[in-house]
Amino acid sequence: MAKTRTGSINVVTANRLADGQAVFLAAAGGWVADIGRAAVATEAASAERLLAIAAASVARQEVVDPYLVALAAGEVRPLALRERIRAHGPTVAAIAADATRYPE
Amino acid sequence: MYQYDQHDRAFLADRVALFRDQVARRLTGVLSEEQFRPLRLQNGLYLQLHAYMLRVAVPYGTLNGRQLRALAAIARRYDRGYGHFTTRQNIQFNWIRLADAPDIMADLAAADLHAIQTSGDCIRNVTADQWAGAARDEIEDPRIWCEIIRQWSTVHPEFSFLPRKFKIAVTGAARDRAAVRFHDIGLRLLRNADGEVGFEVLVGGGLGRTPVIGKVIRPFLPKAELLAYLEAIMRVYNRHGRRDNPYKARIKILVNDLGSDEMRRQVEAEWEGLRGGDLRLDPDLVAEIAGRFAGPALTPDPAPVRAVEDLPLIDPAFRRWLDANTVAHRVPGHRIVNLPLKPIGAPPGDASAAQMEALADLAETYGHDDVRVTHEQNLVLPHVREGDLPALWRALDGLGLAVPNLGLVSDIIACPGLDYCTLANARSIPVAQAISTRFADLARQQDIGELRIKISGCINACAHHHVGHIGILGVEKAGAEFYQVTLGGEPGEGASIGELVGPAIPAARIVAAVETIIAGYLAFRRPGERFLDTVRRVGVAPFRERLDAAA
Q1: Fewer CB near the last or first residue (10 Å), C or N of chain B?
Q2: B6-110 CATH pick, 3.90.480.20, 3.40.50.80, 3.40.190.10, 3.40.120.10
Q3: A93 Cα to chain B: minimum distance (Å)
Q4: Overall fold of domain B413-550
Q5: Cβ separation of B47 and A15 shorter than 8 Å?
Q6: Which residues in chain A have their CB less than 8 angstroms from residue B347's CB?
Q7: Does the beta carbon of B401 lie under 8 angstroms from any beta carbon of chain A?
Q8: What pLDDT does residue B335 have?
Q9: Nearest CA of chain A to the CA of B51: how many Å?
Q10: DSSP assignment of B150-199, as one string?
Q11: pLDDT tens by residue, A50-96
């Protein structure tokens, strides 16, 4: 069900159980809404390690459905539009403010 | 409208208590996500991209002012101050916390509302003509039968785990405003040669991955046999519908595999064992339910009301609104007032809490406390006295809900799309907003005339793109948004499925492509010819040529 794009740089995302908020596994531990504070895995082994931490969090009823989100090289920006929208919210409001152009 | 009795209220109270317990057990980990997911879905609670989404049922699209205020209160207290009306005449809240969901259910129940049959592989909320009880071309109010189907189908033990979800629509009018030909079962009330009213029964219509126009399997069904016949259809489907592949699990696939003659044979054989039995509808019970839909006692006023026809005030803007958004009522001297939730540039179907509260007041003041939700993501006040129209118009204008665009290019259906939905491949709402803004000029919209654009963000077709005069389907190609465009779909009595006009169009060019198509129509059309008629006459090829030339 989760749509991930292949890439070598990843963060782990999930939805918080109590409110469904899209969250990211933080470098400092715990889950944060700001993808900019997410722990970035640059190799497969560290991605696996982050997923193991996430699985333990699932078992503590903190989050559901964790998965890897691939980032563009050199920036905390998901490759997939879906994941950018998950991280930053609907684009609807931005359009309403400037409805003369379609968002890139 | 239908009023809940003690039985309905007790059932809802039990259901809220059950769900409260389930949520508590989930939050403490007694229930796993796998165990809990089907339970929350049975209560209309989805987990979407940003939060939980709650889909509240609006049975046959009928609300009263108190209920609309309850929905507004939920939007204010538990969400971000707005709700989104859907193509199944329901309302969705996009920013719900799981921990709040039991309290929301309790608030809904206090207003005789719930979220049952808005998800899962059951018989979903039954939809109806939004002008029920008010339309001039109506034989009988379809909501009487929707309510009977609701009572029969709610938590029906035999039909709670169907191969797939199941959608029924009912119309009682000559014109089909409920898209009955695109439902798993479509029911059309009609009068036979003997003057008796019964149902034409269609089966196997649907949209999604495989769009199909429903087949008539019984041209005339006596009303008393409605539930026995529906039960027979459901049993055949439950027995033979495919459970191995969710994409082939809808009844339309079964009807296609069996053929409509064999489907009819099996249904009729099953019905033989049921007809005249316990499911036969008692006329007294039907009469009692019909009584609850009797509607307001309106006094006919055959003389044109001065307020509408003669008042010197007549503001041209009022006149435009009157002509575009209101239609004749079955009782002279009244109008059906349509309220497109399509202000220029706004997300289709969204209503703020303040708008809902104000509409509740207006419905009580001018509309006999009756509000309808349409599958086109609009609202309706079905019973308004002509003399009240100027005051109502002024109030609606103040709410931004008097844009005279019903059925025009900016009256777009759009699903939530990739901005909210986990299933979507591309965005829908921003495309709708951009098209609406490009065609903001109302004189231009009126010159273009009737044109129904429907935009879905994935093949599940929540926005019914296959039956849009212009249908737009979002697809993903190598991580980018593209849109497939179809022309010539129609959901009503001249039902047709749109034809693909060419290769998928990149997001940055979709609005220009729509403009090119419309410019083509304006060039090709004969006097008085609607967009759909022109497409049917000339085919899609000339439109494709224009798109190719513009690309």
Answers
A1: C
A2: 3.90.480.20
A3: 9
A4: Sulfite Reductase Hemoprotein; domain 1 (3.30.413)
A5: yes
A6: 92, 96
A7: no
A8: 95
A9: 4
A10: HHHHTT-GGGSS-SS-B-EEEE-BSS-SS-GGGSSEEEEEEE-TTS-EEE
A11: 999 999 999 999 999 999 999 998 889 999 999 999 999 999 865 44
pLDDT tens digits, B346-398: 999 999 999 999 999 999 999 999 999 999 999 999 999 998 999 999 999 99
Instruction: Bin B249: left if φ > 0, else alpha if -120 < ψ < 50, else beta.
Output: alpha
Q: Would an 8 Å CB–CB cutoff place B291 in contact with chain A?
A: no
**Residue B327: helix, strand or coil by DSSP?**
strand
The pair of structure tokens assigned to A3 is 């749509």
Q: Considering only the top CATH level, what class is B134-292?
A: alpha beta
Please tell me whether residue B513 adopts helix, strand or coil conformation: helix
Percent of chain B with pLDDT over 70: 97
Domain spans in chain B, listed from the N-terminal domain onward: 6-110, 134-292, 306-398, 413-550
A interface with B, Cβ–Cβ below 8 Å: 1, 5, 15, 17-22, 58, 60-61, 64-65, 79-82, 85-86, 89-92, 95-96, 99-104
Residues across chain A = 104
| Residue numbers in B near A100 (CB within 8 A) | 437
Q: Which residues of B touch A89 (CB under 8 A)?
A: 50
User: Mean pLDDT, to the nearest integer, of B65-76?
Assistant: 98
